[in-house]
Write a structure and sequence with these properties.
2 helices, 8 strands, single chain
Length: 196
């Protein structure tokens, strides 16, 4: 009987997915950890090992601790896209996040990279006026585009909700199957031995 219980325990252990015990972490990032960026950028992308919650937060700071203003942070499944208001300044950039991964555990972590982009000269007041005049029509053209982006974000949120519901249903079904199996094993253990 001990061999049968041991065999069932081995089978159950193999049925539990290994990722159920793993915490969410950074899989890769752009710019990557420790890299040196030699061009002006406004975006940082972090890919995690599992999907993360919409309530996840992130901060970008310089080496002296100054927090950089963010335009927006988009969470899509296992990806976090961070857009800054202005191009990242030269020097060390620290990316620190507080996320809730697929396993439900809150995780705080981060990484850093360097920016060494050519410094652009400040435009004269006449050049600024021309740039603003050129930007206004472009802003008007982008209005339908932003509505399309909003619709795609809504569809992405619905897809994420469906994925979470499926995962939860599978988890409940797995627990129910495990409980049924334990019940069967207990039933066989209680059955009196007829050879006595």
């Amino acid at each position: 009987m001990k061999k049968m219980i041991t065999a069932w325990m081995l089978v159950l252990t193999l049925l539990v997915p290994a990722h159920a015990f793993a915490h969410t972490g950074k899989e890769e990032a752009d710019p990557s950890e420790g890299s040196v960026v030699t061009e002006s950028i406004n975006e940082v992308t972090v890919l995690f090992t599992t999907p993360i919650s919409e309530g996840s937060t992130v901060t970008l700071t310089t080496a002296d601790g100054a927090e950089l203003p963010l335009q927006d942070v988009v969470v899509d499944g296992d990806t976090m896209i961070i857009n800054t208001v202005e191009p990242l300044p030269n020097g060390t950039i620290n990316v620190d996040w507080a996320i809730v991964g697929e396993d439900g555990h809150p995780i705080e972590d981060g990484y850093s990279f360097e920016v060494d982009a050519p410094v652009q000269e400040a435009p004269t007041s006449e050049e600024e006026g021309q740039a603003e005049a050129e930007e206004e029509p472009a802003d008007m053209e982008n209005t339908p585009e932003s509505e399309t982006e909003s619709a795609s974000e809504t569809a992405s949120d619905e897809s994420s909700d469906d994925s979470n519901q499926l995962r939860n249903s599978l988890l409940i079904a797995g627990i129910a199957a495990l409980l049924l199996l334990v019940g069967v094993v207990v039933l066989f253990m209680r059955k009196p031995n007829r050879n006595e």
